[in-house]
Every structure is written in C-alpha cells, then in structure tokens.
Design brief:
InterPro entries: Chorismate_lyase_/UTRA_dom_sf. Keywords: Signal. This is Chorismate lyase. It comes from Dyella solisilvae. By secondary structure, the protein is of the alpha+beta class. It has a single domain, classed as 3-Layer(aba) Sandwich (Chorismate lyase). Helix content is about 20%, strand content about 25%. The protein contains five helices and eight strands, in the order E-E-H-H-E-H-E-E-H-H-E-E-E. It has a six-stranded antiparallel beta sheet with strand order 3-4-5-8-7-6. It has a two-stranded antiparallel sheet with strand order 1-2. Strand 1 and strand 2 form a beta hairpin.
Length: about 230
C-alpha cells in the first residue's frame, strides 16, 4: 500500500469486520537521484536509532515528533485481533522455555496520529510478566514496550533488514539509478526487525517481529540541493 494513499483494511472474522482508520494524505517524494539518496539516509538513520534503543515504541515517538507526523508525538497500539500466528519453530529455544510453557500472541499496529508506522507480531511468556502486566496486555491497546517498562528490559536484535532499497545494487560503482520523474513508489513495508526482550534478571520473555511501513517517511520532502 503506497504511503499517503487513503487505506481501509477489513478482516473477516466470524461475520464481523475490523476496519483501520483512513490515513491522511501524505506528500509524495519525487523519483530522482537526490530523493532516493535522502530516503536511504532516512531509513538507515531510523534503523540505527531502533537498534540503539530497547523500546521501538519510544523510538517511534521520537521519530514522530522530530518529523512532525502528528500534532501530538504519541504512539498508540491498535490491536489486530483474530490473526493469531503460531510460534516460530526456533522461538522456544530463543525464549529459553520448554515445550509445555504457555505463550501468548499479540499483534498490533503502532500508529502516530493517522500514520501506522509499524506492524508488530509479539509472542510473550506470561509467567515472566506480572499479573497486572498480563491484565493490561489482555484488556488494553497500550504498546507492549510501555507496559513492560518496569522490567527494565534490554533488547537483543536477531535480525535487522531493509526490505527495500531506493538505490540499486552497485549504484556506487556507476549502476544507473532508476528515475521516473514522477512520484517515488515506496512499498508498504520498508524495514523489518526481529528481536528478543530480556528482563533485568536476563530472562527472555518476548520475541517480536516488527515490520516498519512507508509511513515513517510521511512528511514533506526536505528542500536540499537548491530545490
């Protein structure tokens, strides 16, 4: 889904529909060499910021505020229900749990204002959280990172991947840059992280896969190079 397009996603579940809010129209980036360099620099900056902080939620709030994506730089979690995913094959080993240990699943969209910045799949071990944390996770849309902050957790990144690069492989050696002279086409998902969260006693309690969307770039293109 192209950034800035009005979007409404419906999920059929037992005859009911879950509809996400329509997103605001975002300014388009031009498809030229300078724009592609700018976009790559921004994605690498966001990636480095996410890798250097334990909470993706708080990092996205800072990003939202710095780029004025919303009047209020506050990230909220919009629960996506009815799309439970099985635990990945290697997850029990990564979480340090046995075959019979209960694991819960939570899928959220992290949004700042009308912009969905991240879609996160989260498998967590309820026995390693407090009763109040589990209750809040079950009954509210509060972001996971904010709920478990009292654990003073740290984050170990297992993988960080740019899902799309605005520059072709070998561009630095003279490979021609694609350019349409129109709007730059940016795919829905641009960056993905896979990480395990550890509490202050170094116990793993959560596996998260975060897919960041093109809306992290939903702000006016900077006027560089005399433009």
């Amino acid at each position: 889904m192209r950034r800035g397009a009005a979007a409404a996603c419906a999920l059929g579940l037992g005859g009911s529909l879950l509809v996400t809010p329509v997103q605001a129209q975002a300014p388009a980036w031009r498809d030229d060499a300078t724009s592609r360099l700018e976009v790559l620099a921004l994605l690498q900056t966001l990636n480095a910021d996410l890798l250097s902080h334990p909470s993706a939620t708080l990092t996205l709030e800072r990003w939202c505020g710095a780029h004025h994506l919303s009047a209020e730089a506050k990230v909220v979690a919009e629960r996506v229900r009815g799309q439970d995913k099985p635990l990945p094959d290697d997850a029990r080993k990564q979480l340090g749990i046995g075959a019979d240990e209960p694991v819960r699943y939570r899928r959220v969209q992290l949004a700042c204002g009308e912009h969905v910045l991240s879609e996160a799949d989260n498998w967590y071990v309820p026995s390693r959280l407090t009763e109040s944390m589990n209750h809040e996770l079950d009954t509210t849309d509060t972001p996971f990172g904010k709920i478990v902050q009292p654990l003073h957790f740290r984050r170990q990144t297992l993988a960080a991947e740019l899902l799309w690069s605005p520059l072709p492989q070998g561009w630095e050696s003279g490979t021609p840059l694609p350019a349409s002279q129109g709007a730059l086409a940016i795919p829905h998902h641009v960056l993905q992280h896979r990480a395990v969260l550890f509490d202050q006693d170094n116990r793993p309690f959560s596996l998260v896969v975060e897919s960041y969307t093109a809306d992290v770039l939903a702000f006016p293109q900077p006027a560089l190079g005399g433009r």
